[in-house]
Amino acid sequence: MEEKKPWYKRPFLIMSLILIGLIVVVQIVISVSPSDSDSDSTATKTNSYNDDYDTDDDSYDDESNVLNDDSSSSSNNFSTDIKTSLANLKADISTMPKDNYDNIENSTLEKMYFDPTGANPSASSQISAAMNSLKNVQKLADDAKELANKPDSDYTQDDKNKLTNYSTVLNEYLLAFKDYATVTYQDKYTSEDPSTSQSDKQLLIDEMNTARSNWTDKKNQWLSQYDEIINQQ
Questions:
Q1: What whole-number distance in Å separates Cα of residue 144 and Cα of residue 223?
Q2: What distances in angstroms separate CA 105 from CA 56, 117, 118, 123, 217, one per listed residue?
Q3: pLDDT tens-place string over residues 41-91
Q4: pTM attached to this predicted model
Q5: 92 neighbors 101 (Cβ within 8 angstroms)
């Protein structure tokens, strides 16, 4: 019977054990290394993020400074001297003389007073003239509203505020007059027609009186603003 050799006298067994040990060590190293790598990568990414964040903060500060500069610049648009500003204000509100508005009112209302029935051979041309007059008044109202858009640099802030208020009251006056002229166009002939009942006549007269009252009120507000600016020293 062959005698068994001790394990330390068997080279093949020893080599196998050594190989197994190396494999285990390698696996341990591999399993540990990615974690370290991930930690390094995470740290790198964190640093990179912080750098980017700092850069964005700098950019944000720069943008804030630009916005502040713009706001400051905008608030300094009213740079004209007081004398020039007042001259500009007076010139802008008196582009059309005050008396011309009275002429426009009279001319427009004359075109509203006519017989619109088929018995009037010139009714068609009169209607056309009336509509054109109303369009002209609307155009004046639109132009009045645009006065508020004049450049700030032409005025002091106080004068630009006055121009804006004037623009509003002139626009409202012209629209109120247009409304009265339209109501007159629609109601006047019928209210004077003998065939119209007394109750209907009164309703039409009341409607015209209300529109006239509103127009007169708005016109007085405009005249007050106009005179105040023109007489300013």
A1: 14
A2: 63, 24, 27, 21, 15
A3: 444 444 444 444 444 444 444 444 444 444 333 445 776 789 999 999 999
A4: 0.67
A5: no
